Amino acid sequence: MKSLEEVLRDWEAVIGLEVHTELTTLTTKMFCGCELSHADEPNAHVCPVCLGLPGALPVPNREAIRSIVKAGLATGCEIEKRSMFYRKHYFYPDMAKNFQTTQGPVAFCMHGRLDLGVRGQGASELPDGAAAERAGDGSVPVTRGEDGYEVPIRILRIHMEEDAAKMNHLGGAEGRITEAAESLIDYNRCGTPLIELVTEPDLRTPEEARLFMEKLRRIFLTIGISDCSLESGSMRCDGNVSLRRKGETELGTKTELKNINSFKSLHDGLEYEIRRQAEVLEEGGTVRQETRHFEPGRKRTVVMRVKETADDYRLFPDPDLAPFDLSDGFIESCRAELPELPDAKRDRYMAAWGLRAEDAETLAGEPALAAFFEAAVAAGEPAHAQATANLVLNGVMGFWNAEGAGPAESPVSPEQVASLAALVAADAVTSAQAREVLPICAETGDDPAKIVDERGMRQVTDDDALLPVVEAVLARCPDQVRQYREGNVKVIGFLVGQCMRESKGKGNPKRFNELLRERLS
Ligand code: ADP
Ligand code: MG
Ligand code: ZN
Q: Which of 184, 193, 222, 306 makes an SS bond possible with 64, Cβ 3.0 to 4.6 Å?
């Protein structure tokens, strides 16, 4: 098979995503009062409504409607005041009613938009000059900048539906139904409020698809409607992809990758599928419209089933649920509850503290992380914000990981991080030393300045003390001095190392480096 890069020189990949998000922050199910909980005994939270017993009547969960309206407002959607629920019929034991309650042509949220910034390495997946305009009619413009591009991705709709029960297929390989000897059903998950977001086919590379999904996750986390865990399946994604010759405006036949459970699988699965389709088409074959499953371990996709059509589901309005008539007051009260969104937060970090864009984006993306970072900046100097960001991203987060902790229950306090960042900013300790100090901060609860002094870790940055060391090293290493002056500037590393040895590790390597360069120029 050709590489992605080669394929995208001749073909345009067209990608649309369908993202399911369980509203895990709610306390009860979508149409009944059963507790929302996945941790309890199987089938502990069931009732006649979610088991679909005859005569049981559903009542919509007001909080779930608030959540989807917030999701729509946060993604630039129009909120439809009048929409209703439909029945989508199918037979499968994970849905005892024999239909799923979902929405029809009009969803609560329609026609939104998310802007993606594609930078660095990922920007090169889209070959230069390719797909400058999207959607054929140019309604999706791409703005190119120095290190990448920005593209708006249209959202077709976000609708409300309910999740199915969880099935456990026992006795077969990988828990697949085909080899299973028996199947167990846990209806606790059945009836969990679920929102499905469908994009227009505006994405063009696996990287864009991954960035879209990551951005959506940051927004949903921030507005607090879900724990958005791809691992545990509270956020899941289907990737639709087709190819067409460059310059062609008609869409090709798509395949759909189901239930992708990591950002990497989304990227790699789409990449594989694009390469596979290119091979089929270039050999004169046709792509069949089918649902495929990505196997990350073997890096390939396999057929699950050939596509059903909407007619097969007998979609019709649910007679048990009255159409909605959302008031302006309701919608405005949802808007009033929206917190600062990740993009706005990122822009604020950049404007107020001069943070690098990528750092600001990462920190602003998770509410608990953003709160921790802001507390650390508040406890120190605004001028140390970037140093604080560096320490959080390249030290504290790794430490949390190792400790199985996170920003909400951090073993180091924002105050300790602020004071440690100040030490790094003043070159009193290196970033590597700062990482060593973190566990001691957690263990002793002491101020990092005290720890650094007690353990003799404070670095010498005073030129009066460093210069004699530099002179001594230069006198000792005439060969390296000559090499440097002949243009082999890499020997500076060796000379810094010598200075560090000479100063028994106390001298500041950055300052040694500067002093050596000054002396040698
Ligand atoms: P289905 O009925 O198969 O679920 P939809 O028309 O609802 O298909 O579209 C599902 C997703 O697939 C949407 O995100 C849409 O943008 C995308 N999509 C539709 N047609 C194509 C195509 N030809 N190539 C790529 N993506 C597509
Ligand atoms: Mg679909
Ligand atoms: Zn119930």
A: 193
